[in-house]
Write a structure and sequence with these properties.
The protein is of the alpha/beta class. The chain has 18 helices and eleven strands. The strands form three sheets. A five-stranded mixed sheet has the order 8-5-7-6-9. The chain has a four-stranded parallel sheet with strand order 4-3-10-11, sandwiched between helices. The longest helix has 21 residues. The N terminus and C terminus are likely disordered.
Length: 427
């Protein structure tokens, strides 16, 4: 009998399974000089150990270092890439002088697309686990898997655009990114969501369980999808104040659905929207008709409220463990998030601009968008009322998702004194 050495193929497959397209390394020291020396030592190591596993190098450094006030971080795709970036790194503002206030922003409907953050879903088990957790919670109400709707070969953008599917999908992505940041040590001082995004904030803040949130969001989307109306929406590129004046003669037919700062959104009957756009055109005000079939955040939603209220009454709402700035009021929510609040949430305009101003007035200077794409971050960047020094993304449809997410984690490590130990995402 001949005995041969066991094949190494299975080990190769196993190691490939956990390779990532990018890794982040977070370096810190108790002085600038010590940080420079640490970088020099790592450069010397990489010059002679270029074939080592980049993930192992980053993980070891990220979990073994004591947190000091002088910090830097680098996102790279290989040891060679890390070496080049370390050799060119400029250590500006490496000293953590003060803590910052952080707000997580949760994106709303319209940000969905096929394959949202696919790279993270495929390469980061912890993120994939959050998505699957949401998929299981929604399955009894959708009879379909969210993971299939987003990531399978049969994923269809037209199906994702249906409100009964859109809202669960956006909720799940928002929730997954928010939970990822929190579990990795980010400590938000506030949360804010845009329309359906506020349900993700409510769930992560402990107001509702994931199972209850899934039931509510699925019902909300289904009722809105099945609503028979001739509603429409339109983005208007002017200030909220000026838009309110223009709408005075359209009372009862066109309403403001969202104050977004860089633009506002109106909602109402299609024929009334068309008449209003004629007024906008005559005054040389820019606008864009939105591809929706309902007049969200208006009294035209009234017919679904009784059935929605019945579902809400089955749920216990808790006090938030993380403060939430309300869509309805544009201020910190001090009253209970009860049934009637969530009814108003459907009918009232989204006061996103007012909410950001409130947060800025309360010294929030770091905003992180948790959602499928760069939507709220763009609005916040363009608002004069928002004094944010740092606006970060969870992902960006136009960029590599993993790289974008790691750049945000690295930025938070460099700037935040009150984040807990920031580790490489666990496998």
């Amino acid at each position: 009998m001949v005995v041969e050495e066991a094949s190494q193929l299975s080990n190769t497959i196993s190691s490939k399974k956990y390779e990532r397209s990018n890794n982040v390394i977070c370096l810190c020291a108790n002085s600038r000089l010590s940080l420079e020396q640490k970088i020099e030592n790592l450069v010397a190591f990489l010059k002679t150990n270029n074939d080592d596993c980049l993930g192992d190098i980053c993980y070891k450094e990220n979990v073994s270092s004591t947190l000091f006030k002088y910090r830097c971080s680098v996102v790279s795709e290989s040891c060679s890439d890390l070496l080049k970036k370390l050799q060119k790194i400029e250590l500006d503002n490496t000293d953590i002088e003060k803590s910052h206030k952080i707000a997580l922003m949760f994106t709303g409907q319209g940000s969905q697309y096929v394959g949202i953050a696919r790279e993270l879903y495929e390469q980061l088990p912890i993120f994939r686990g959050y998505i699957k957790e949401c998929s299981q919670a929604f399955y009894p109400y959708l009879n379909e898997s969210l993971t299939d709707l987003i990531y399978s070969d049969k994923a269809d953008k037209m199906i994702l655009a249906q409100t009964n599917i859109t809202q669960p999908v956006v909720f799940a992505i928002d929730y997954a990114f928010g939970k990822l940041f929190i579990d990795l040590g980010v400590k938000p001082d506030y949360m804010i969501g845009h329309s359906i995004g506020e349900w993700s904030a409510a769930c992560l803040a402990g107001i509702v369980s994931l199972q209850d949130a899934a039931k509510i969001v699925a019902t909300r989307g289904k009722l809105m999808h099945e609503l028979k109306s001739s509603g429409g929406m339109c983005a208007v590129f002017t200030s909220g104040y000026k838009l309110e004046q223009l709408l005075e003669n359209f009372g009862g037919s066109v309403w403001i659905a969202a104050y977004n700062g860089t633009h506002q959104v109106i909602s109402g009957e299609v024929t009334s929207i068309e008449k209003f756009t004629e007024l906008l055109f005559s005054k040389d005000i820019g606008y864009k008709i939105l591809n929706v079939s309902q007049a969200f955040h208006t009294p035209l939603m009234n017919s679904i409220l009784d059935e929605f209220r019945e579902v809400l009454q089955e749920v216990t709402f808790n006090s938030p463990k993380i403060p939430i700035v309300s869509n309805v009021t544009g201020e910190l929510m001090t009253k209970p998030f009860d049934v009637e609040y969530w009814i108003k949430h459907i009918l009232s305009p989204v006061k996103f601009e007012q909410s950001l101003k409130y947060l800025s007035d309360n010294l929030v200077d770091t905003f992180i968008e948790c959602g499928p794409d760069r939507v709220l971050a763009g609005m916040a960047s363009g608002m004069q009322a928002c004094n944010a020094k740092t606006i970060l993304l969870s992902t960006n449809r136009k960029e590599k998702p993993f790289e974008t997410c790691l750049e945000t984690l690295g930025s938070l490590f460099r700037s935040e004194e009150h984040t807990s130990e920031l580790q490489s995402p666990p496998l």
